[in-house]
C-alpha cells in the first residue's frame, strides 16, 4: 500500500485517532480565525454545502422503495415494503416508513431525489468504493478528495471547509489544503493529554519540513476546537449512530441528544447562524452494512437520518443564512436486488442521493434503474455521481467544476 493510500485509509477509518486527525488538519492561525468568526462573517449571499456520508452501503431499494415493482416484491419478499407502509412519492415509488420528515420536505418541494447514482465499473469493496466517491475518480486512484481539490483551487483559507467528528473524510484532503478538522468528541482525551500535545506542538530548530508541518497541525487543531467553542458555546457534536434529532430531539443533562448525527448538524447550524465563514461541512453516520436482519436495523438508522436532516433543514429555513444551506446525502453503494439468506442484502451498486434545502428544486432526477435488466444481479446506474458533484460545486460553491472533477457531466437541474 503506497504512503498516500495508507495515510488516507488510516484517516478514513479513524485508526489514527486524535493525533492522526490533527496531522491531517489544515493550518489555521488562531488570531485570524477568531477575527474571521467575529468581524468577517460568512457573506450574506454565500451558499453553504453540508455533505452527509452514510458509511456501510445503504440499501437504496428500501430507502426509495419501488413498492409497485413485482421484481422488488419477488426478490426480497421478507424485506419488501407494501404500498400501505411507505410514504408515497409518485412513479410507483415511496420513502421508507422511517423517513417521515423527508416526506414532509418532499411535499414542500425542498427535497430532490437523484435516482440510480453510481460510477463506471463499480467496486464492491467498502474501502475502494468510498474512496472512489470521496476522490471522485472512478478509474484512477488519486491522492486528493474532491472537496480538497476545491480548496486547492479556490484559495488558502482552510476554514472554508470543516470536517465535524473524529473521522477525517478523504474527500476533505487536498494536495496543499485540507479541511479544518474539529474533533469535539475528544474533549476529555485532549484535556488528559494536553501537556503532551502542547509539547509536541512546540517548534524545534533544524527539523525536517514534514515534522514541522505535523507540529503546526497539532497547534492548529487545538486552535480550531478552542475558537469554535469560544464563538459557538460549550456544546460539542458527537459522532456515531443513535436515534432522535433535529429540532425535536431529546437532550440529556449534557445538552446532547441520543442522535449523534443531529448533534453534528446542530453544531453546523450554530456555525451558520453565527456567520462562521465556512462553505462546506462534512458529517457522517455509520452502520449501514446490513448483511443480516436488515429491516429493523435500517429503519432505526433511517429514523436517525430523518430526524437529524429534516430537523436541520427545517431549522435552517427559519434563518437568513440558513436558507442558503444545501444538504447532500450519499452512501458508497447500494445493495443487491435479491435478499440473501440472512434477512439482509449484499453489496450492490447504484443508489439514490438526497439533496435538500431551500435552494433545492424538489422532485425526481435521473432514471429509476430497472430491477430486471441487471448486471450480474446488480442495478445499472443511470446517473454518474460526478453530475451531482458538478452541480453542487457550480451552484452551491460558485466554482468551476472542471477544476475539481476529471469529468463534468451535464447538470441535472436540482438546484436553482
Give the gist of this structure.
The protein is an alpha/beta fold. The chain has helices at residues 3-13, 17-24, 30-39, 70-75, 100-107, 126-135, 146-154, 187-200, 209-232, 260-274, 294-317, 385-396; strands at residues 48-54, 64-65, 87-90, 93-95, 111-118, 161-164, 180-182, 280-285, 325-331, 351-356, 363-365, 383-384.
Q: From the coordinates shown, what is the CATH architecture?
A: 3-Layer(aba) Sandwich
Structural class: alpha/beta
| Tally of alpha and pi helices | 12
CATH level 1 class label = Alpha Beta
Question: If you consult CATH, what is the topology?
Answer: Alkaline Phosphatase, subunit A
Share of residues in strands: 5-15%
Shape: globular
Tell me, rounded to a whole number, the average pLDDT.
83
Number of domains: 1
Helix content: 25-40%
Give the N-terminus to C-terminus distance in angstroms. 43 Å
> Nearest-angstrom radius of gyration?
21 Å
| DSSP strand tally | 12
Region (Disordered): 230-257
InterPro entries: DUF1501, TAT_signal
Pfam families: DUF1501 (PF07394)
Amino acid at each position: 500500500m503506497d504512503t498516500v493510500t495508507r495515510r488516507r485509509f488510516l484517516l478514513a477509518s479513524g485508526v489514527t485517532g486524535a493525533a492522526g486527525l490533527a496531522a491531517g488538519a489544515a493550518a489555521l492561525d488562531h488570531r485570524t480565525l477568531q477575527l474571521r468568526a467575529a468581524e468577517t462573517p460568512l457573506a450574506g449571499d454565500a451558499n453553504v454545502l453540508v455533505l452527509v456520508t452514510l458509511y456501510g452501503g445503504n440499501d437504496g431499494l428500501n430507502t426509495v422503495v419501488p413498492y409497485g415493482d413485482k421484481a422488488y416484491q419477488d426478490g426480497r419478499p421478507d424485506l419488501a415494503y407494501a404500498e400501505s407502509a411507505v410514504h408515497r412519492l409518485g412513479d410507483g415509488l415511496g420513502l421508507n416508513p422511517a423517513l417521515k420528515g423527508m416526506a414532509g420536505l418532499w411535499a414542500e418541494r425542498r427535497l430532490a431525489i437523484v435516482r440510480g447514482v453510481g460510477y463506471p465499473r463499480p467496486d464492491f469493496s467498502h474501502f475502494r468504493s468510498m474512496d472512489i466517491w470521496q476522490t471522485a475518480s472512478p478509474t484512477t486512484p488519486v491522492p486528493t478528495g474532491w472537496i480538497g481539490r476545491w480548496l486547492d483551487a479556490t484559495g488558502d483559507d482552510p476554514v472554508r471547509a470543516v470536517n465535524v467528528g473524529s473521522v477525517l473524510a478523504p474527500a476533505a484532503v487536498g494536495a496543499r489544503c485540507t479541511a479544518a478538522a474539529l474533533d469535539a468528541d475528544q474533549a476529555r482525551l485532549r484535556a488528559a493529554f494536553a501537556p503532551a500535545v502542547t509539547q509536541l506542538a512546540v517548534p524545534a530548530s533544524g527539523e525536517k519540513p514534514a515534522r514541522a508541518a505535523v507540529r503546526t497541525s497539532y497547534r492548529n487543531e487545538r486552535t480550531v476546537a478552542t475558537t469554535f467553542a469560544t464563538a459557538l458555546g460549550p456544546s460539542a457534536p458527537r459522532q456515531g449512530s443513535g436515534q432522535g434529532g433535529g429540532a425535536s430531539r431529546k437532550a440529556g443533562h449534557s445538552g446532547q441528544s441520543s442522535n449523534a448525527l443531529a448533534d453534528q448538524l446542530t453544531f453546523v447550524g450554530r456555525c451558520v447562524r453565527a456567520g462562521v465563514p465556512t462553505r462546506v461541512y462534512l458529517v457522517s453516520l455509520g452502520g449501514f452494512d446490513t448483511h443480516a436482519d436488515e429491516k429493523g436495523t435500517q429503519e432505526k438508522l433511517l429514523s436517525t437520518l430523518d430526524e437529524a436532516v429534516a430537523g436541520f433543514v427545517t431549522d435552517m429555513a427559519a434563518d437568513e443564512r440558513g436558507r442558503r444551506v444545501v444538504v447532500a446525502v450519499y452512501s458508497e453503494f447500494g445493495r443487491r436486488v435479491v435478499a440473501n439468506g440472512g434477512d439482509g442484502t449484499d453489496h450492490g451498486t447504484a443508489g439514490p442521493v438526497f439533496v435538500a434545502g431551500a435552494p433545492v428544486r424538489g422532485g425526481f432526477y435521473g432514471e429509476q434503474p430497472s430491477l430486471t435488466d441487471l448486471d450480474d444481479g446488480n442495478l445499472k446506474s443511470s446517473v454518474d455521481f460526478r453530475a451531482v458533484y458538478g452541480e453542487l460545486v457550480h451552484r452551491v460553491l460558485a466554482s468551476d467544476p472542471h477544476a475539481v472533477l476529471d469529468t463534468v457531466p451535464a447538470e441535472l437541474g436540482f438546484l436553482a
